[in-house]
Amino acid sequence: MNKKIDTKINIAGIEFKNPIMTASGTFGSGMEYADFVDLNELGAVITKGVSAIPWEGNPTPRVAETPSGMLNAIGLQNPGVEVFINRDLEFLKQFDVRIIVNVCGKTIEDYLKVVRALAGTGADMLEINISCPNVKAGALSFGQEPKVVEEITKKIKKEAKQPVIMKLTPNVTDIREIAKAAEAGGADAISLINTITGMKIDIWKRKFALANKTGGLSGPAIHPVAVRMVYDCARTVKIPIIGMGGVESGEDAIELMLAGATAVAVGTSNFYRPDNAIRVLDEMAEVMEKQEVSDIKEFINGVS
Fold this sequence. Notes:
Blueprint: E1 9-11, E2 14-16, E3 20-22, E4 44-46, E5 63-66, E6 69-72, H1 81-92, E7 98-103, H2 108-117, E8 125-129, E9 133-134, E10 140-141, H3 146-159, E11 164-167, H4 175-184, E12 189-192, E13 196-199, E14 201-202, E15 207-208, E16 214-218, H5 223-234, E17 241-244, H6 250-259, E18 263-266, H7 269-272, H8 276-290
Helix pairs in contact: 2-3, 3-4, 5-6, 6-8
């Protein structure tokens, strides 16, 4: 990265050395990737989802390839917040990188237990995964109903000691309404998009490719949807946006910033190229040099 280029961005009063992050669920908590990636070079690591108690996740098979992407139905498998704090968070704190903890739950109280446990732990921000199934609403996602989004955001903001990012699901009629609800609830930022619900059937076995039948579609196939939704939300709310969805290159990342994102998370491409987030950052610097852009913030909302 050219030191003459200013790559710093700010979200909710927290400065990041650059806007590139690793999307939740695609990078663990960095431990699996530390041999391949210098975590110090990243703007932030967004951890895998953390729940109040251990979650086993869904039965296998849980991953299937699709054209230009993949389906996953991992089910947010994780060891619970206590193990996360003592093991994963302690590991990440040795690096010069911002730590954003992804929080998941099946009831509002589940979320609040994790939020309370993370107070004073060294986590810089919390990303609230409201694509989780709300067990009190027949497994409908928390993030699909504006009133519920506003309610859960308010309750989390009341207890959180760190800035709160609400992660939005694209599986809604109008994501702008969900973004407005998160802002009304006091969110410091939003992140989008999460995966798009999809399905794959093996025609030879006449069976579902995933044991869960449906899964979340990610990868390059969803990138144009992400760009459109980031653009829509950036013109609807005033809080910062972390954009994600099919980012494979520096050009992809800049496209999301031009649409309105302040920062960009790299996800599925980490699976086939563990160091891709660093490559994305380097490619962004190359574009900046070619376009004679000295400050990366110039890209934010820069589409005409």
